[in-house]
């Protein structure tokens, strides 16, 4: 770098102040440079005050003079200062090079995310815990992914594979089934974990409450109280209604079978496969069976037909009985009196 000598100077004996004319010292001189004055002596520049003012490290020893030539020469101090500045720069940014520069960031927080935006410093990404990512807006944690890949929206520690909390103490989730662990479940639950959900697996829906199946829907129809639908009890897509309220098909207490859209079907309340009462209507009159035998018919015109009894009834206690015997309509009262209402 060449020496700077533009313009002229005015110096005063015994003073450290140097005044320049036509000089640009701010850009061309610096503390530590060498000043060669009109007396040909060498001085150290202590400071550069402006383009036309510098201060020497010691007072000027020559005669007072103005409009004098001068020289300002750079020294090797430039190199030492540069080296010091580079060292400071490396120290300052060493952590950046090993951290963000290498794609590594601190944990941050919801209020001050580790990765954020210049125009929005409380919105970004942070690490709320081990192997967990948090997403923050307005300084609050909004969305989380934990170590198991579970996703929480408004929930920092999701219990389900995906969990949402639209309102306080109410959660919506996607999880593994509780009735069928091979099923996927859509559920709603409170903070205590009590849930109501729908599970889907192997072409069936299961509705569960508190972990207990209450209703199943599959290709066979609808089963209530957790039972799997069969041909004995279902609500099918074809409009046929089948229902069983007892324990087994052989020992049910009430059964509605095959009541279809065409009006056919039967209602059974037997005590066994061949006993009890059955009412059926197969696109025609209503028929009543007892003990597996036809007992009465009510036709479409409103006529009631009673079948001949197989055995005359005994005297009823405290009541009467109306029956058909040998084609005649008879009535027997509680006292045993028999009245023929209509002969054969």
Biggest sheet statistics: 12 strands, mixed
Report the portion of residues in β strands.
Answer: 35-45%
The geometry reads as rod-shaped
Number of helices: 2
- What is the rounded distance between the termini? 144 Å
Give the integer mean of the pLDDT values. Answer: 78
What structural class should be given to the helix and strand makeup?
A: mainly beta
How are the strands ordered across the major sheet? 8-9-10-11-12-13-14-15-16-17-18-19
Task: Please name the defining characteristics of this protein.
344 residues, mainly beta, twelve-stranded mixed sheet, 2 helices
Description of the molecule:
The chain has 344 residues and is mainly beta. Among the domains are: 8-73; 115-199, no CATH class. 8% of the residues lie in helices and 44% in strands. The strands form 4 sheets. Strands 8-9-10-11-12-13-14-15-16-17-18-19 form a 12-stranded mixed sheet, with no helix packed on it. Strand 13 and strand 14 (170-176) form a beta hairpin. The radius of gyration is 52 Å and the shape is rod-shaped. The termini are far apart.
């Amino acid at each position: 770098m060449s020496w700077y000598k533009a313009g002229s100077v005015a110096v005063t004996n015994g003073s450290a102040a140097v005044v320049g004319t036509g000089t640009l010292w701010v850009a061309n001189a610096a503390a530590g440079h060498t000043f060669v004055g009109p007396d040909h002596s060498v001085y150290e520049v202590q400071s550069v005050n402006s383009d036309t003012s510098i201060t020497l490290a010691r007072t000027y020893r020559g005669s007072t003079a103005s409009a004098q030539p001068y020289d300002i020469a750079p020294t090797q101090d430039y190199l030492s200062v540069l080296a010091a500045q580079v060292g400071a720069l490396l120290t300052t940014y060493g952590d950046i090079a090993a951290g963000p520069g290498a794609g590594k960031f601190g944990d941050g927080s919801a209020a001050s995310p580790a990765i954020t935006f210049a125009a929005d410093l409380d919105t970004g990404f942070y690490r709320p815990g081990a192997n967990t990512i948090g997403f923050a807006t307005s300084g609050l944690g909004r969305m989380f992914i934990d170590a198991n890949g579970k996703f929480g929206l408004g929930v920092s520690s999701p219990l389900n594979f995906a969990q949402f909390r639209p309102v306080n103490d109410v959660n919506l989730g996607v999880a593994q089934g509780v009735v069928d662990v091979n099923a996927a479940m859509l559920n709603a639950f409170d903070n205590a974990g009590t849930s109501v959900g729908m599970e889907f697996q192997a072409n069936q829906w299961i509705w569960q409450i508190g972990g207990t199946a209450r209703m199943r829907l599959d290709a066979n129809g609808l089963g209530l109280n957790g039972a799997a639908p069969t041909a004995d009890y279902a609500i099918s897509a074809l409009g046929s209604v089948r229902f069983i309220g007892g324990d087994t098909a052989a020992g049910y207490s009430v059964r509605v079978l095959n009541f279809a859209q065409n009006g056919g079907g039967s209602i059974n309340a037997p005590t066994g496969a061949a006993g009890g009462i059955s009412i059926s209507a197969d696109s025609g009159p209503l028929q009543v069976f007892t003990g597996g035998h036809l007992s009465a018919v009510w036709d479409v015109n409103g006529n009631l037909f009673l079948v001949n009894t197989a055995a005359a009834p005994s005297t009823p206690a405290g009541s009467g009985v109306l029956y058909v015997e040998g084609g005649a309509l008879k009535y027997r009262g509680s006292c045993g009196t028999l009245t023929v209402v209509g002969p054969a």
